[in-house]
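During the reporting period the student researcher (J.K.) took over the structure-prediction task from the postdoctoral fellow and processed the backlog of single-chain submissions. One of the processed entries is reproduced below for the supervisory committee.
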Amino acid sequence: MLNGILFVLATGIPWEDLPPSLGFGSDMTGWRRLRDWQRQDVWERLHQALLIWLRQSDQIDWRRTSVDSASAPTPRGQGTGPSPTDRGKLGTKRHVIVDAQGIPLALL
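J.K. obtained the following structure tokens:
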């Protein structure tokens, strides 16, 4: 299931187009598992565990870090406020910081 979820997220294909020949499981099972894992903060805990392992293995390249952000429109009712770039629209702003290798260190 994890490979199927990552495949859909990386390629952007609709769940129903997940090729059964890849052996990643059912499209709807993958969608439900992603939904459940998001609700249970599995991704955040996995990210933290990987960062701990990378830091202990001296795999984070601190010589250079990069920060980027993007504003994105968000539908009403999802706990967002006015867009930082257009006060008339609801939106959210996402920030990410990566190390010199592009490893995501934080996301807000």
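The committee noted the following: The CA atoms of residues 3 and 66 lie 28 Å apart.
J.K. will present the remaining backlog at the next meeting.
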